[in-house]
Amino acid sequence: MDELVGIILAAGEGVRMKSRVPKVLHRLCGKELLKYPVELFRNVGVHRIVVVVSRSNQNAVKGLLGDSVEYAVQSGKTGTAGAVESAASILRGNSQNVLVIGGDSPLVSEDSLKNLIGAHIKDARQMSILSGMIHGSSGLGRIRRDQNPQQSVLGIVEAIDDSDRSDESLEVNSGAYCFQSDWLWNNLNRVEPGNESERYLTSLAAIAAEQGVGVAALTSSEPAEVLGVNNRVELANLEDIKRQRIREHWMLEGVTITDPASVMIDTDVTIGQDTVVLPNTMLIGNTSIGSNCEIGPGSTLMDSTVGNECRVTSSVIENAIMEDGVDIGPFSHLRHGAYLENNVHIGNYVEVKETRFAAGAVMGHFGYIGDAAIGARVNVGAGTVTCNYDGKEKHRTVVEEDVFVGCDTMLVAPVTIGANATTGAGAVVTKDVPSARLAVGVPAKIIQR
Question: Catalytic annotation on 47?
Answer without folding.
Answer: no
